[in-house]
Design a protein that fits this description.
Elements lengths: L1 H30 L1 H5 L1 H45 L17
Length: 100
Amino acid sequence: MKLFQVTGAAVLNTIERLGRAALFLYEILGNSWTLARRFYLVIQQVYAVGVFTLPIVLVSGLFVGMVLGLQAITRWSSSARRNRWVCWWRYRCYANSGRW
């Protein structure tokens, strides 16, 4: 009995979600005729979103790159201590010198 309840609930949930998606598509297609008349507004908005978000993308990419670089240096320096290698940021590599 529990199996039928779970299966029925899943089927009803799927049908409800499909119905909501169909209504949403109907609304989009029904109101998209105004888009053809004012297509230049869509182009302006896409351009503005693309241009104005470029600095945000660049700054976030810069910080992500810095964090990845810091993590790489930290990882290499911990392996350098184990292998008795001086870390990369000192611009010199001494093998088995015992210095750190």
